Amino acid sequence: MSHPAPPRPVVVPGARRLELPPVHGAVICVAAPCLAISPEHGQLTGRGIDGIYRSGRRLLSRCVLRVGGRDPVSVQGRSLGADRAAFTATVRTGAEPGPDPDIGVERVRHADGTERITLRSFALRPVRLPVEVLLGTDLAELAAVAAGRTGPELPAGVHAAGLRWSTGEAQAITAADPAPDDALASAGLLRWQLELGPGESRTIELRTTQDRSARAPAGQVANPLAEARAEGDDPRAEAWFANSVADLGALLLRDPAEPGDCFAAAGAPWRLGLAPAEALWAARMALPLGTGLAAATLRVLARTQIGGRGPEAGKIPGPLRGAGPQLPPGCTGTEATLAFPTVLAEARLWGMPEEALARLLLAAEKCLEWLRGALGEDGFLADPDPGPRRCETQAHAHRAALLGADLLAACGRPGAQEWRERAAHLRERFRAGFWIDGPDGGRPAAALHPDGRPLPRLTGAAAHLLDTGLLGGGRLAPGLLDGTRTEQLARLLGAPAMDCGWGLRSMAVKEPGHNPFGHRSGAVRAYESAVAVAGLAQAGFEKEASGLLGGLLDAAEAFGYRLPEMFASEQRTTAGVPLPHPAACRPAAVAAAAGVHVLSAVVGIRPDAPAGTVALVPLPGAPLGALRLSGLRVAGEPFAVRISRLGLAMVEEAADALQLGG
Fold first, then answer.
1. pTM across the whole model
2. Span 460-481, mean pLDDT?
C-alpha cells in the first residue's frame, strides 16, 4: 500500500521583513506628532521599539533610572490619559532593617518628551541617595526601528544642563531640571546626589526636544472635541466616551500645507499620518461633536484630489490596503473618494457653515464625476479596476450617490435626479447579483469576481450594507437590500458565527480561511462593529444591536476604554477576556471615534440643521439604562440629550432655532 507524502512546510519568502514588532503590551502615549512607547516597567532600555518619538523620528531610545546604585523594582505601569502614563516603582536602600522598600519612585512620562521623576522617602531617618539616569538614542526613523534596521547609539555631548546627540540631519537634546551634579557624555550619564528627610520628596524633570527652544512641537493640535461628555446608569459608557474623545483629539495633526486645517492620523504607532479613508470615517463618526473636524479633513483631502480630464480625475489618491487571503488589496483612495460626498452631505445636516460647505461642494461634485466614469457596464464598481466588485464598495458607492443627490438638490446644483436613478439601478443590480439564496435565508456575497462568480463568504464588511446614511428631514436613505434581506442580514450578524461576544468578527467562524487574529479574516475590527451597531439600531433590530453593543462595551472595559483597531475574535467565555492583536494600532482614529458613534447611535440623533429640526430615535429598550450626552454640537451650538431608563428621549440643550422633529 502506498502512503501519501507528508505535507510540505509552507515557506513564506521575506515574511520576516513584513513583521511588525508586538506592541500589545506597550504603554503608548500620543499627542500627534509626538509619541512615547514604553514597556510596562517604564525603563527605556534601548532595545526594541521603545522610545520618545517626534514626527516619526526617535529622539530618545534609552532612559534607565538607577537609585542608590539599584534598578527600581517596578510595581505598576498605567495610562493617565491619551498623552501621558505613570510608572510606579520602589527601592530598598538598606537604611532600614527588614524587607520593606524605603523609597518610592513615580515617573510620569508625556508624549511630548517630558518626564518627571519623583522620589519619596519612607525612611525614618534622612537618606543620601545617588541618582543616575542613563540616556541614549540612535535618532532612527520609526520605519527603520520597526524593521529592525537601526544603527548603534550615537555618542553624546554635554549641552547646558543635559546631553545632546546629532547627525547630519537631526538632533535631540535632553535637558534636566535641576541641573545634574555631574554629566558624563561618554557614558550618556546624568548624576545627582539627593538628600531626603523622612516623608520628603524630590522631583527631577527631563525634557527631550529636537532643539533647545522647542516647548510645543510644531503641528500639535489642542483637542477641540474635549467638551463632550457622557454620563448615566452605566459608568462604563462615561469612561469609554471620555477616552474616545481624548484619543481622537490626541491623534489630530495639522496639514503642513495649511496649518489651520487638521485631520485625525490613522493610529499609533504605525500610522501616525494621513490615511484618507480612515480620516474621513473618523470625522464622520465624530460629527456629533461638531463639524469642524469634518470640514478641515475634507479641505485637506480636496487639496490632494486628482485634477485634469483623465479616468482618475476627481479621485482622492490613497494607498492599497490588504484585504485578507480571499481578495486582493483594495484601494483606500476609492473608499475615500466615495466617502467625501457622504461626509459633506451629513456634515451639512449637522450644521456645517454655508461658507465652508460652498468651498467643498465643487470637490464633492468631482468625486461624483469620478464615480460616474468608474461604474462598470454591469453597474458595479470594481476595486481595483479590473478586479472584484466588493460588497462594501457597492454600499459606499450607493450611499455616495444618494447622499450626493440630496446634497446637490439642497444646494441648487444640477444632477440630483440622475444620481437618484443611478442609485436605484445599483440597488436593482445588487439585489439580483450579490444575494446568494440558501435554505437558511441566504446571505450577501463578499464580492463578485470579474466574471460574475460570487465569493460566498460572510464577512464583517456586510455591516456596511446597513449603513445607509442620513438624508434631509431626519430620513434614512434606502439601503441596497430590501426589508426581508435586511432582516436576514441582521440575524446573521447577531448570530454566534459573527458575534463572538466582544464584537463583530470580520469573517464568520466557520468560513474557509477563518483566523481569529486575521485583520480581514476573523479579527474583531472596532470600526466595523460600531458600523454594525449603528446600522442595526437604525434599521430597528434592537436585539442584535444591543447584543453587539454590550460585547463592544465589555471589550472597551477590558482594554482600559482604549479599543485597539482590531483584536482577536476568540469566542467569549465566562472567565475570558478579549485577546489583543500584537500589531494593532492603539489608539486608532476609527476605533476611538467608534465610541462616539456607538453611544450616539443609542441616542439616535437625526439632525437637519438647515431646516431647523432635529429628531431623536433612541434604541428601544434603553440597553445602557439612563444616558445623557452633553457638549455635542448641532447647528453650531451646544446640544445635550437625555435618554431615560424607559427609553424616552429629551433634548436638554439646543440652539434656539432648532425644533424637535418627528
1. 0.93
2. 97
